[in-house]
Amino acid sequence: MSWTRKLLRVNLSNGTVTEEALNMQWANDYLGQRGLATRYMVEETDPACDPLGPDNKLIMATGPLTGTMASTGGRYSVICKSPLTNAIACSNSGGFFGAELKFAGWDMVIFEGRAASPMYLSIENEKASLLPADDLWGKSVWEADKVLRTKHQDPQTRIACVGRSAEQGCLYAAVVNDLHRAAGRSGVGTVMASKNLKAVVVRGTLGIGNVENPEAFMSATKAGKAVLAENAVTGQGLPAYGTQVLMNVINEVGALPTRNMRETQFEGAANVSAEAMLEPRKSDGKPNLTTNGACYACTIACGRISTIDRTHFSVKDKPEYWINSGGLEYEAAWALGPDTGVDDIDALTYVNFLCNEDGMDPISLGSTIAAAMELFESGAITTAQTDGVELKFGSAEALCWAAEVTAKGEGFGRDIGLGSKRLCEKYGRPEFSMTVKGQEFPAYDPRGIQGMGLAYATSNRGACHLRGYTVASEILGIPEKTDPLESDGKAGLVKAFQDATAAVDSAGLCVFTTFAWTMDDIAPQVDAACEGDWSTDRMMEVGERIWNMEREYNAKAGLTGADDNLPARLVSEPANVGPAAGRVSELDKMLPEYYAARGWTSDGSVTVETHSRLGLPG
Amino acid sequence: MQKSLHIDPGKCTGCLQCESACSLENEGMFNPAKSRIKVFNFHDEGRFVPYTCTQCDEAWCMQACPVDAIVINAETGSKDVLEDVCVGCKVCTIACPFGTINYNTSSGKVVKCDLCGGDPACADACPTQAITYVDANATGLDKMRAWASKTDNATNG
Predict the structure, then answer these.
(1) Is the reported ipTM for this assembly greater than 0.90?
(2) In this complex, how many residue pairs, one in chain A and one in chain B, have their CB atoms less than 8 Å apart?
(3) A189: closest CA among A359, A33, A47?
(4) Any chain B CB within 8 A of the CB of A157?
(5) Domain segments of chain B as ranges
(6) Where do the structural domains in chain A lie, given as residue ranges?
(7) Does residue A538 contact residue A583 with C-beta atoms inside 8 Å?
(8) pLDDT (tens digit per residue) in A228-257
């Protein structure tokens, strides 16, 4: 088993909360979390619906391993149609909320409709109720968390919440749980706020006692933990340096997108790197990093717990920020740093705190600010729009200001909240937007890491590193080294990473395990936990099925092969410096190979044969 | 040789593997709510602190129990609750200064750490050695070594 076999359906329009049996046929075909929730979306929503209207649904879903002792088995995802991309959105988060939902006896919660006034959902084991949240509306995630914690009087309560940015319609608002873990991308928080749903509060004391074969499970998970501990990346690099270990590495290989992706190396990278986070600062002799922290059941513990220098301009008069909280991860540090040209680590940490406090995706925020800086430089926007602020590349003050106004949805912050694509279109320079399907890029330049260009272009949720992380192979040599500057063979590599990741997500595990684990390490854990036989081959087939199902959802939402593209800058303007100098992304060469490898038509549609081979719905 | 659970909060990442392992060992399920060891997350301070029964020699809980349901395990030195004797009066939970003996609403009895009979599951599950099971006479050894290494001529700290 390991699924609780129960889901909670919450209709916000009529205020009902009902228990429902989980569709076990679908669980067997789509495993859980990302896959299973998307299957429900396919069944229950019109892919062409308005993402911010009542017909969109929002699902919080765990996987069969969520809440167990499998390393990293604490994850949940938020699934809905995205207002940023108009495609399917699935944002994955760690922390402790997902495991708690499972301990309360629920595999997933489906939210539908829209409440007439702000509400929050309270779950205490089998008891679930919708309660008024008028007093929480207008509050940040951190403030709302305090109020709810006081109200519920249980220190073990876990809370997922949206901030002011979501309420104000910022299109890349996140759902933040446990104060600084986030279902960050694609505006899932915006959808939650559009339903007048402020928070979900959960306390679970029922536990998980239905693992199919407990002895085999403990032996498989123990073996898995040993593999993680012995691996250089998951056993040493990530605990010590976090994902920020990549800052200097990616800069050196010439794939660190800089100043709105105009350049591929950043002169200030070392100042905002993992190594810099360990340097004692002048003011108090303490480093930026206090310690590393883990999500539920994670034996890697890559999370950063950081402080901001109290003498820094951003916080010197704001003692509420003189605390420890979630620090810089690589993607956030890149978007807020190299992409805006800012190399001030305290400014970056402050903005990262703001992203957690008010629920914004730091990747999209940083990239959109970078685009705004290029608009400012070109004269397309001026100080007339920016309230007098000189929105220049490299300005830490401008970065902090832009984040503050976006968090609250004030003035020009509302424009930044539109995301890079809509912002650049509004000011007449669409070519400045570094996006795929309307979603901003993460921290790897596809001119210097060819596989990532294809992974971005074909990602089902727009530009994203977590849909097919070929960086593992192209830079780190996992599972085997491929040449990052070479596009040959990348179509098959991207497909394999995409399918595997869909299965890992759907199990309830963290994709970072795959720095060390192959599917041969993961399948035995799923197999021991769940009924039926879960082989490596079946896991890969489930992954492929999920990928194609998402693709078909997007097709019905109106996306076509023409949306599998990259901005002109990356396919026609060669990298100017570093090892990738002179190169562009060879997407045009890789894309047809990829469609062929997927069993799709030459214009990127899932063929009837592929559809029926995978047993897809409809 | 008697052994003790030794906790080094500086090494704890807050992953709760110990809580899950404890609940699996004692309740047969993954359920941190029923764990006898607890990890506290001091968010603003950036610290994770695991905490459980220290197995006091003259245990307050044992002294307070009106029905002698708490007994010394001669082999491990742990103070164990005899479930069939415990009447669930909770006096021990008031007597314990550390809060590490608690009432279990499902069984109607109190529960506390019994060192898993000499092979504590929490220590086994801890991925960072923040929880270890060591010679009870030398729980201070690591701290002594750390401080010793800070003296002038020490080189192998």
Answers:
(1) yes
(2) 87
(3) A359
(4) no
(5) 1-52+119-149, 54-112
(6) 6-203, 242-252+258-433, 466-613
(7) no
(8) 999 999 999 999 999 999 999 999 999 999
